[in-house]
């Protein structure tokens, strides 16, 4: 989520894993209570209020379809987590996406 070259990171994940190797990636969700709350508080500059610094930091927020495209041809299980104080709403409005997958056999090292 802090790289402007996410496909390069995915390629490195695939490179170091053997076929059938598992990976687990944790990123910020674009569609979340936290992103909406920060946008409502800070307007266009809302991304400056995500991390603990006001310095500009590259932050990419993801959706399930974006992660699925990024990690092709691997199949992913993507779940949302963390929706304080309403944990039951996490699958819809959670702040974190966790993508679990397996390196396909047909991906070259």
Keywords:
3 strands; 109 residues; globular; 29% helix; 3-stranded antiparallel beta sheet; alpha+beta
Describe the protein's topology.
Blueprint: H1 6-16, E1 22-28, H2 33-42, H3 64-70, E2 76-81, H4 90-93, E3 96-102
Given the C-alpha coordinates, what overall shape results? Answer: globular
Q: Order the strands across the largest sheet as they lie in space.
A: 1-3-2
- The tally of beta strands, per DSSP, is 3
Kindly estimate the percentage of residues that lie in beta strands according to DSSP. 15-25%
Determine the mean pLDDT.
88
What structural class do helix, strand and pairing data support? alpha+beta
Plain-language structure description:
The chain has 109 residues and is α+β, with helices and mostly antiparallel strands. It has one domain. It has 4 helices and 3 strands, in the order H-E-H-H-E-H-E. It has helices spanning 6-16, 33-42, 64-70, 90-93; strands at 22-28, 76-81, 96-102. A 3-stranded antiparallel β-sheet has the order 1-3-2. The protein is globular, with a radius of gyration of 15 Å. The chain starts with 5 loop residues before the first helix and ends in a 7-residue tail after the last strand.
